[in-house]
Amino acid sequence: MRGLDGKPPKLSRPAGVSSIPEESPNGEAVIYLGYEVSAGQRTLGQDRKEAICQTPKPQTMKELRTFLGMTGWCRLWIYNYGLLVKPLYALITEGSRDLQWTKDVTHAFNQLKKALMSAPALGLPNRFQKYQAILVEQDDVEIVVTNIVNPASFLSGSTGEPVIHDCLETIEATYSSRPDLKDTPLEDAETWFTDGSSYVVSGRRHAGYAVTTSREVIESGAITN
Question: Deepest in the core among 72, 78, 132, 157, taking most CB within 10 A?
Fold first, then answer.
């Protein structure tokens, strides 16, 4: 939130946005969508944190989902949020109408509120620093993290022993129908040709084949299912 001259800009007060200069070390801060945004950082608004922490223990499934929705909006500020709410989400997966507040569930509920009240300030991204972005515009392409290759293994600098193999031998073993069959032309061999065709008459398919030379038909016939 700095201008080109390095100084914080003068912020106006549009609808829903209030200025609180006394809470910012640089003299300027705004509240936007529940965030307190100041120079270089953003924090959760105190009113939002207090509203969530004053929420009583949910008694119905709807109340529990509402509470988890409010805390989920603040998950960026809560360390190990997924682990903290795991017992609470377990109540939802059980599908029971009456919530069973066990010791672990109650502890998770209280720890979540405690972590929310001590939420730290998060730094804002600096677009002037070097970064790399990947834009994927194709609908059928998705970038995910692989579980097969560990990227850290490429940081060691050791390439290991070279792999010795014969590419042609590997291709023959993979794609050849029989190892003893070769594609070497025979001397003075007679060339035969094969062909086939099919068509549908009255909803029934007819197919046939033929084996010929350049002068005569060696064999032909119908192909039956």
Answer: 78
